Amino acid sequence: MDTSTTSPVTRTVLPNGLLVLLREIHTAALVSHWVWYRVGSRNEPTGRTGASHWVEHMQFKGTPQFPVGVLDKGIARLGGVWNAFTYMDWTTYFETLPAAEIDLALRLEADRMTNSLFDPEEVESERTVIISERQGSENEPLFRLGEEVQAAAFRVHPYHHEVIGDLADLKTITRADLYQHYRSSYTPSNAVLAVAGDFETGAMLERIQELYGAIPGGEATAAPQRPEPAQVGERRLTVEGPGETVYLQVGYHAPAASHPDFFPFCLLDSLLSGPSNFNMFGGGVSNKTSRLYRALVEQELATGVQGGVQATIDPFLHSILAVVRPEKEPEQVLEAIEQEVQRLQQAPPPPEDLQRALKQARALFAYGSESITNQAFWLGFSEMFATLDWFTTFLERLESVTPEEVQRVAQEYLRPQQRVVGVYLPDGQIEEEVEA
What we know:
Elements: E1 2-6, E2 9-13, E3 19-24, E4 30-37, H1 51-58, H2 70-77, E5 81-86, E6 91-98, H3 103-112, H4 120-137, H5 141-153, H6 167-172, H7 175-185, E7 191-197, H8 201-212, E8 235-241, E9 246-253, H9 262-273, H10 291-297, E10 302-309, E11 317-324, H11 330-346, H12 351-367, H13 372-385, H14 388-392, H15 394-399, H16 403-413, E12 419-426, H17 427-435
Parallel strand pairs: 3-7, 8-12
Antiparallel strand pairs: 1-2, 2-3, 4-6, 4-7, 5-6, 9-11, 9-12, 10-11
């Protein structure tokens, strides 16, 4: 067992390949325990989109040791919380419990890493649930628009499809498909175990070794071999559907989280639309000082605007979403967005603007460090697309960004040729235009 300690995090790799990250925090008698798997929608082949999300559902359907329904009651009775999330790049499960009860989480996750049942009747029941979830999302304008923008931006790379999967695949994926996805991906060599809270590191490591050490290591999930080619021209699309509101979404191709340009891009994002919040839990900060809020909302072109960049393994999107005022046209909003982008491309932002963006980033970072659950979250999350150093040096790297670097990334990434522009038109407005 290879162990190295860099205060305050102990980093250990078990012989089977499981990466263990431990941080003692003795401010409250709580422990948060996360297991991260390097598998998400990015790793799904055509015909099996949505498999990772579906497997996540099946992990709550029981093992011989922990039958379905038992754990909900058990964790609630202990005063704990638990949940799971599937994303493009990863799947994660967590439990936060009183420190004296954390062994339940350790036993649970070690058990369902290898012993989940995937009962055929439960698989079919979840098919109905997930299809209903998918169809419910299709009634939401922002889901419809976001899915089309993402699909237009990624024609080759598996970021093309939504995490929930395509309806055609949800109807045809078999129990054997799901079980194979589970057995090949839920392995120690493909996982990170992150624990933070009120425990003693030596005893915790010993218990983790007892529970996880005998599980066969398996193979790491293969990375997709279909990189997205460079976009060579602006792509535009229109989506029609229910509702009464017109939305405009602009997606620019953005750098991966591990790329050096990601850090100046974060400040660019903050200046334009307000800072992105990478925390799983916790509040945000106002975007009313952002350039797009002033240009769109204060100038009464839009009733709201938001934006963001996401921390991903491969290059993804910087997205800007505006709620178009009823008396305005989407093209007017797009012109105003382009004017603000060009301002950043033509001149570096004033140092005081950059300092304000840094102050907002520090505030968000503080939110992300308040709870033991978020501390454990960050241990594993940063390992999904980079390493823990990405998290521990995040503010330092932001503080080293110069105004000229922000201007450079604006020039390089925010070009019209590298964007997708999507407009959502509600059915009611379309009918009115036809009658007119």
